[in-house]
Each structure stands twice: as C-alpha cells, then as structure tokens.
Amino acid sequence: MFSIGYLELSKEKRLQILTNSTFTIIVMPRQLFKENDWNVFQIHLLEILQSGSVPVLIGDKNYLPLQDYINWKRVLVTFHWNMLTKFLPFLSSLVDMDILQFKQYGRHVMEVIFSSKKSLLAVILESMHQRQRVPAPCFDPYHPKILFTYQPKSNGNQSYDQPGHFREGKHSLLDLRMPPEALSFINVERKPGKSWPPEKFTVVILTYRRQYILYKIVNALHNLPFLDRVVIVWNDLLTPVNKTIIPELHVPVYVVACGKNSLNNRFLPFDIIRTDAIFSLDDDFTLPQKSILLAFRK
C-alpha cells in the first residue's frame, strides 16, 4: 500500500516486501500532489517495476510519467475511485499468463527507460520531439570501402534522364508542383522533358561466397525500369572480388566492403545510395522483374 511511512523502511526491506508480492496497490491522493507525495510516488513506482510486482493504481492516472511514450496499460492496472468495489474481483480473475505479461513489459520498461540517466534523457528528448513535431536527426552516412565500380557506357537514348544543369519547365511560387504522373497518368520514366525528378530505387545485394549465383541475380536486373544503381555488399573479407562475376548493366554497379562480416551490413546508410526506395536482396534469391516493379509501384 502507498503509505506515508513507506520511505522510513530501508530500501532492502522495501524490495523484499515487493518481491514477495504479486500485486502492489498505490492509492493516489484525491487532491493535488505535494512535492513529498510526488517523490514517494516516483520511488515507489520504480521499486515496484524493479522488483517484478504488478502495480495497481487507484485514483487519477494522469500523474504517470511519459504517458505519450509508454503504454502504461501494459504495465499496471488502474481503477477509478468509483470502482473500488470491483478491483479485488478483477485481480482475482487474472490468470498466470496475464500476470506474466504485466511483469515482462514492466521489466522491459524498467530496463530500457529507467535503468540509467542516459536512457531516461533520450526518452524525454524523444517525447519532446514528438510533441513539438520535430523530426529526428538523420543518421550519419556510412562511407564503405569501394572494391569495384562498373559504370555503363553512355547511351543517347537515356541522356534526357540524366541530371543536367537545369530542369525543364518553369515554376513560380504559386504553381502546384506535382509529378507529371499524377497530372496526366503517364509513367514518369516514359515522359521526356519532365520537370520532376524521376522515381527510382536502389537494389542492395548481400553476398557471401556465391559468385555464380550472384552473376545470375545481377544479370537478371538488366534493363529493369526505375533502377538507379546496384550496390553489392561483399561480406567475404578474405576472398578478393573477381570483376568477371559482375555483368554489364544499364546502371552503375558498386561492390563495397564493410569492416566486418555481418548480416546487418545491408542496413547501413551508404553514401552512394541516392534514392529513398531500396530493394534488398540476398544472393540466393531471385525475383522476376515484374514482381520487383509491382512491389515498387505499389
């Protein structure tokens, strides 16, 4: 129970009592919190989560911290003052699986958020960013070691699609800037003279000692529409890259190496990627071009 003499007990004694309790009832005052009551409430709540007991809050739940970031319904049970006659039957009706879920999520909140000052400060800043609608800072671009680069030969038929010194068409501040695809229902890539940057995607392939299959996968991407470039993450740090396994495509191909062999290398923010859309592939899986285009345009 939430009592005035709670802090008079030693911390070891309090944790011992809470550890042996399945539920711990916190009775909130009807009037506004005083400074001493607020300190006792915070200490009591953190010790309950630390001990693995399930908090039962009776009263106003608006005093819970970080309500826009923590789903407190998964951490504790709340009852209003008008429901005092029903909270004991409700607690008796909870099965072991429900109690275990409360304890697991409470332990997760305690370890991830309240375990250190650094993690708590990060959560507070994130909550402030969400309230003020401030976007989070971007990740620093990762500069991989480029092992091999293939640049396609220039093609006059595709010259209109390359970035130039200016964009076709004129715009004023009052013009509605929309892609031609939205205005005329014509594919963006097939409309020359467009005044909107083309929609493209990048294919990232993670490979490890499957050179023959890698050749087939990359070769299947030849003349794939909307493809900007291909990035091959070479996870085999011991075997050098054989340039003959990279077929000639209509787009640039980059073979890069990271500092270690990891399956998470495909998720690194490579600085050579210029598109927002990224299609990740393994070196043992192939898809027809129609399926890739369907996934991109959808």
From TrEMBL:
Gene3D superfamilies registered for this protein in UniProt: Spore Coat Polysaccharide Biosynthesis Protein SpsA, Chain A
Subcellular location: Endoplasmic reticulum membrane
Keyword Electron transport: no
Domain Glycosyl transferase, chain residue ranges per copy: 201-297
GO molecular function: glycosyltransferase activity
Family: Belongs to the glycosyltransferase 47 family.
Domain of life: Eukaryota
Keyword tags: Disulfide bond, Membrane, Transferase
Gene Ontology CC terms: endoplasmic reticulum membrane
Record-level GO BP terms: carbohydrate derivative metabolic process
InterPro entries noted in UniProt: Exostosin, GT64_dom, Nucleotide-diphossugar_trans
Name by which UniProt lists this protein: Exostosin-like 3
Membrane topology: Single-pass type II membrane protein
Species per Swiss-Prot/TrEMBL record: Octopus vulgaris (Common octopus)
